[in-house]
Amino acid sequence: MTVGLNLIYLVPGEIGGMETVARELLPHLPSQAPGLEWVAFFSREGFAAVREGDLELPEPIRTVEVPVRSANRTNRVLAEQGALPYLAARNGVSLLHSLASTAPRIAPCKQVVTVHDLIYLHYPEAHQGVRSVGVRLLVPVAVRAAQLVLVPSLATKRDLERLLGVAASRIEVVPWGVRKPTDPAPEEVERVRLTHRLGEAPVVLALSARRPHKNISGLLRGLAAIPEEERPILVLPGYHTWHERELVGEATALGISSSVRFLGWVDQEELEALWRSATCFVHPAFYEGFGLPVLEAMARGVPVACANASSLPEVAGDAALLFDPHDPKAIAAAIQRLISDEQLREELRRRGLERASQFSWEAAARKTVRAYAKALGFAAPPASWGVAEEGAVAARDGVGRTAV
Fold first, then answer.
1. Sign of the dihedral through C-alpha 338, 339, 343, 348
2. What is the pLDDT of residue 363?
3. 203-220 b/e with 16+ CB inside 10 Å = b?
4. So what's the pLDDT on residue 180?
5. How many Å apart are CA 154 and CA 401, to the nearest integer?
6. 209, 186, 246, 179: which is closest to 117 by C-alpha?
7. Rounded distance, CA 360 to CA 384, Å?
8. What's the rounded Cα separation, in Å, for the pair 21 and 290?
9. Same fold? 2-177+360-392, 186-356
10. CATH class, range 186-356
11. What is the pLDDT of residue 399?
12. What secondary structure letter does DSSP report for 56?
């Protein structure tokens, strides 16, 4: 039996969390079902990344190039709806898993779709132009076409039920994982500190794309509310968007430009050095389907403060300081507590490491494979798939706790 993986959306370095999920989940899938065959469908950009070694896949996953450049969203949609079903049939696919919230309306096989969030309904301004129209049309189409919908959190599951009318029985929660971090070289940490002029001030790291629902504007206003003599350096890695110019202008208007570092997309080595340099991590988003950076910070022992919104309390559990993202003074107070209270930082560090240990990409892959079986109408994965018995693995999904 062959599982197809729809990855034609993947433009390396340009799609944030959805790229991270693909890079982290795919290497674990074949080991969870060694009896299955796997084929991944990439656009020209993704296929080139695989060929050049920028995107590593395990050997059991065969790759097929879809003749389209996904940077052109219109062409990508046309290819997903037309060329992809044809190629799936040609490659004997029995189940097609689309990993980025959209999928073919008609396919020659059963379908599973991962819906990361419903930001487009909560915050329509998060998308612009053709993309805004596209997600409003294509996500409901994908949800209707799929036998099963995978979501990363209970919050997103509730959104699907309430906003798109999806039956709970058709939704499976598959929390994302977090990889064990690598230690950056001391010289790389020093280079990064010098390059970005971090000096000796406390460093607040906030890793996210520049989009309105990420609430970087609120974070900037929170930073401005901190007295200048106590103000930390705010470091903002993340891929560039149309919204960034507004944020840079806002930092200038608030008089805090000297305390803010707007970085672009950084490679993993530099990012690890930034994590090592951080006094704390702050995630002020109004809405997240999961909020993976919260777990990434915890896995590195970086104390976390995050918004008490959507899925974030669910993911953070009791291991983060929570605040109202609509209140810049609350954001400022959380930052000040973290940078001034060493005992609090140490307690959150300890709790964060424990919390992060409850999430793994191996567990996410295992749940994904079991969802495939359900979508195909099996009560459990067939023996021919080679899936371990449920009792033979210790899978702790780490969701559903309430933050305190």
1. positive
2. 97
3. bbbbbbbbbbbbbbbbbb
4. 86
5. 10
6. 209
7. 25
8. 11
9. yes
10. alpha beta
11. 43
12. -
303-326 burial code (b ≥16 CB/10 A, e <16) = bbbbbebbbbbbbbbebbbbbebe
**pLDDT under 50 in the chain at which residues?**
394-404
Token pair belonging to 245 = 């110019």
Give me the pLDDT at residue 133, please: 60
* DSSP line for 237-254: -----TTHHHHHHHHHHH
pLDDT of residue 25: 96
Of 107, 179, 172, which is closest to residue 369 (Cα–Cα)?
A: 172
- Listed residue (368, 365, 296) closest to 16, CA to CA: 296
Residue where the block lists tokens 């036998």? 147
Q: What are the structure tokens assigned to 136, written together?
A: 């409003």
Note the pLDDT of residue 394. Answer: 44
CATH of 2-177+360-392, one of 3.90.226.10, 3.40.50.2000, 3.40.50.1970, 1.25.40.10: 3.40.50.2000
CA atoms within 13 A on the CB side of 317: 19
Q: Where are the domains of the chain?
A: 2-177+360-392, 186-356
pLDDT of 400: 39
Measured in residues, the chain has a length of 404
Q: DSSP letters along 115-127, please?
A: ----HHHH-GGGS
Q: What pLDDT shows up at residue 126?
A: 62
**Would you put residue 375 in left (φ > 0), alpha (ψ -120 to 50) or beta?**
alpha
End-to-end CA distance of the chain: 45
